[in-house]
UniProtKB/TrEMBL annotation:
This is Peptidase A1 domain-containing protein. One of its GO terms (molecular function) is aspartic-type endopeptidase activity. GO terms for cellular component: extracellular region. GO terms for biological process: proteolysis. It comes from Zizania palustris.
Length: 439
């Protein structure tokens, strides 16, 4: 009950800020340094992605026992977006991956010796921040609460977690801190009592960031803890390495313009980690005016929690179950007259065309129609630059095949220049084409 109160206070804190508008945060893409080639970027993204299989399971260990639950998150994969937020008193800014496919907010905490990765900027040291506290074991946000099975926590109890993602893990103790959000002083909001992971050991897969911010459906995510109700982002084009994308939390995230389409989220399975994910009802795909012959239940979420399609900011390249991927691949191939080339070594992608030697590295070599993802009640139109990727000498389909029956993922490459709103109260995803550099 105490936590409900804290959350209500947080809602007031957020509403107060920036004249009741909410929080605005800049996002930059990992690997967005000028000079990185598209193929390098995609290869990194996919290599990280493919390492997900062996690393299942979130393990929690408290003084009272251990539990495990599976996680299938493929993250990070090289094309994630980094947001800057600040932790503690005085606020220490740190870059973190913004991930709609998980919940835990975490950063590295000093002291952490050899098992910490090298992060940009200084380490947060809880012992020098008066607003730090260990998260009480009976807090409803405590990952170990289930282990207590209702019993009162032993004195001095703290929850040690080891959160495993598709491509790495992070371990530490759950704490509570004051966080500061916002890109500019006018936007800044300080929110006390945010539960977070104070990691002192991690795999080395997280470089470019100092942690992660979960924006998933669970109670530990930033969206849930702020009681923000909604958030939106607008991702600038991949080729644009100079501009900053935007993440909006709270009422200012609303999409007001024309051309806004909305589709309901499919209720998530109650099991972790699927309960974190935002599932969408994808009923078909068209390339140009041709509706591909994909059976309508191809992306259905099964009662055992398998299958389905999620939207994820923490994955780059969209994966489609093979039955659908094959149709997309064939349709694209039938429309392009350039010779097919094996680009898998350079990019990891499975359909690439060789560019004529004279072609420019920034202009698509042929016209291709847009691709439409038919969601329940809302068509998402992907212009060619959202599904093809151009690199020195090659033009490739920026999608991959997923094993039939597994989870499909709508990645961030496909969401460029779309303003995407997750309304967690209304349980809808809305989107509209946008020039994200001007948002
Ligand atoms: C947690 O335990 C402490 C001490 O036992 C108690 O004061 C507090 O009210 C409890 N909080 C919750 C949310 O149960
Ligand atoms: C966390 O879990 C991963 C994967 O199971 C394991 O490799 C790693 O050693 C664990 N880390 C800690 C600190 O327990
Ligand atoms: C991390 O902190 C936990 C809990 O305090 C401790 O048991 C563990 O030894 C620490 N690990 C490292 C690598 O410092
Ligand atoms: C990330 O880590 C890899 C391997 O550990 C290293 O080669 C690369 O330079 C690091 N990148 C950054 C930005 O630190
Ligand atoms: C990015 O900014 C730099 C410096 O301001 C400029 O030289 C460069 O042309 C810009 N690149 C793009 C793609 O706009
Ligand atoms: C949409 O309208 C709301 C309420 O009028 C406003 O706070 C918000 O800034 C607008 N959103 C955008 C993206 O312009
Ligand atoms: C998905 O959308 C289709 C078409 O609107 C509808 O018939 C079906 O019931 C929806 N499925 C779910 C799980 O919402």
């Amino acid at each position: 009950m105490e936590l409900v109160r804290v959350i209500l206070v947080l809602v007031v804190a957020v509403a107060d800020a920036a004249a009741a508008a909410g929080v605005r945060v800049g996002l930059t893409r990992i690997h967005s340094e000028p000079g990185i080639t598209a193929s390098q970027f995609v290869r990194d993204a996919l290599r990280r992605d493919m390492r997900r299989s062996a690393r299942f399971g979130r393990e929690l260990a408290a003084s009272v026992g251990t539990v495990s639950a599976a996680t299938r998150k493929d993250l990070p994969n090289g094309g994630e977006y980094i947001m800057t937020l600040a932790i503690g008193t005085p606020p220490l800014a740190y870059p973190a991956i913004a991930d709609t496919g998980s919940d835990l907010i975490w950063t590295q905490c000093a002291p952490c010796g050899k098992q910490c990765f090298k992060q940009p900027g200084p380490l947060y040291n809880p012992s020098s921040s008066p607003t730090f506290g260990v998260l009480p074991c009976n807090s409803s946000l405590n990952l170990c609460a289930a282990l207590l099975a209702g019993a009162s926590p032993p004195p001095g109890c703290s929850c040690k977690y080891n959160q495993t993602y598709g491509t790495g893990w992070t371990a530490g103790v759950q704490g509570s801190e004051t966080f500061t959000f916002g890109s500019t002083p006018a936007d800044q909001v300080r929110v006390p009592g945010i539960a977070f992971g104070c990691s002192n050991a991690s795999s080395d897969d997280w470089n470019g960031s100092a942690g992660l911010v979960g924006l998933g459906r669970g109670s530990l995510s930033l969206v849930s803890q702020l009681g923000a109700g909604m958030f939106s982002y607008c991702l600038t084009p991949f080729q644009d390495t100079n501009s900053t994308s935007t993440l909006l939390l709270g009422p200012s995230a609303a999409l007001n313009g024309t051309g806004v389409k909305s589709t309901p989220f499919v209720p998530s399975p109650s099991k972790a980690p699927m309960n974190t994910y935002y599932y969408l009802n994808l009923t078909g795909i068209s390339v140009g005016t041709e509706a591909l012959s994909i059976p309508p239940n191809t992306f259905s979420l099964q009662t055992d929690g398998t299958g389905g399609l999620i939207i994820d900011s923490g994955t780059t390249i969209t994966s489609l179950v093979d039955a659908a991927y094959k149709k997309v691949r064939a349709a694209v191939q039938s429309l392009v007259t350039l010779p097919v080339t094996d680009g898998s070594g350079a990019t990891g992608l499975d359909l690439c065309f060789a560019l004529p030697p004279s072609s420019s590295s920034s202009t698509p070599p042929a016209t291709l129609p847009s691709m439409t993802l038919h969601f329940d009640g809302a068509d998402m139109v992907l212009p060619v630059e959202n599904y093809m990727i151009l690199d020195s000498g090659m033009w490739c389909l920026a999608m991959r095949s997923q094993t039939d029956g597994e989870l499909s993922t709508l990645g961030n490459y496909q969401q460029q220049n779309l303003h995407v709103l997750y309304d967690v109260h209304k349980e809808t995803l809305s989107f509209a084409p946008a020039q994200c550099t001007t948002l």
